[in-house]
């Protein structure tokens, strides 16, 4: 994939595995919805969740963007994250994520209720600015005898732009 194809892959999808460094032990991962804002990926979470606290300690994160159709393909995005607390941006993101999850437009009339939920849950926005990506060509078996045709290669890390 070239640079534009990698960015388009990220724009065309909605879920990723969000990975970050824990205080102790191996990295942590969780599946989240994300929304694009220019080249940045936005993730909604609670301020008290480990993701937000980890980003405050170390802004380096990885997001494995998933294609939700079979056969599954993916693209890893390495980036710098920061926590944002603007109430309007938080509500905007929550509404966009709700639309991704439901497949339907969230009516403006729902905004006050979503704002109340955001305040109660102490929601924040994690803004991830991509730095580079990692890709590996997908390998799939479509029949039992396809294994003899399978060739493995190495993936490559490439700059985001």
Structure summary:
By secondary structure, this protein is an alpha+beta fold. The chain has helices at 3-11, 50-57, 87-102, 111-121; strands spanning 15-20, 28-33, 35-37, 40-46, 60-66, 74-84, 123-135, 156-159. It has a domain at 3-85 and 125-137 and 148-159: Pnp Oxidase, Chain A (Roll), CATH 2.30.110.10.
Task: Explain how this protein is built.
- The chain is of the alpha+beta class and 161 residues long.
- It has a domain at 3-85 and 125-137 and 148-159: Pnp Oxidase, Chain A (Roll).
- It contains four helices and eight strands.
- Strand 5 (60-66) and strand 6 (74-84) form a beta hairpin.
- The chain is globular and about 55 Å long.
Strand-helix topology:
Blueprint: H1 3-11, E1 15-20, E2 28-33, E3 35-37, E4 40-46, H2 50-57, E5 60-66, E6 74-84, H3 87-102, H4 111-121, E7 123-135, E8 156-159
Antiparallel strand pairs: 1-2, 1-5, 3-4, 4-7, 5-6, 6-7, 7-8
Considering the protein shown, what is the CATH homologous superfamily of the domain at 3-85 and 125-137 and 148-159? Electron Transport, Fmn-binding Protein, Chain A
Q: How would you characterize the largest beta sheet?
A: 8 strands, antiparallel
The N- to C-terminal Cα distance equals 12 Å
Shape: globular
Task: Look at the structure and give the CATH class of the domain at 3-85 and 125-137 and 148-159.
Answer: Mainly Beta
Multimeric state: single chain
Indicate the CATH architecture of the domain at 3-85 and 125-137 and 148-159.
Answer: Roll
Radius of gyration: 18 Å
* CATH level 3 topology of the domain at 3-85 and 125-137 and 148-159: Pnp Oxidase, Chain A
């Amino acid at each position: 994939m070239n640079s534009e194809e990698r960015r388009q892959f990220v724009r065309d999808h909605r879920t990723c595995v969000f990975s970050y460094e824990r205080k102790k032990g191996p990295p942590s991962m969780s599946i989240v919805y994300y929304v694009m804002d220019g080249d940045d990926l936005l993730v909604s979470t609670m301020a008290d969740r480990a993701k937000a606290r980890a980003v405050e300690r170390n802004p380096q994160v990885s997001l494995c963007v998933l294609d939700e159709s079979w056969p599954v393909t993916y693209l890893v995005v390495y980036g710098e994250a920061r926590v944002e607390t603007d109430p309007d941006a938080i509500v905007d993101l929550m509404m966009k994520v709700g639309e991704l999850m439901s497949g339907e437009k969230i009516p403006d009339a729902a905004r006050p209720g979503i704002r109340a939920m955001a305040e109660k849950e102490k929601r924040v926005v994690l803004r991830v600015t991509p730095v580079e990506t990692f890709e590996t060509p997908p390998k799939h078996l479509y029949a039992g005898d396809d294994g003899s045709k399978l060739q493995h290669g190495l993936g490559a890390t490439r700059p985001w732009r």
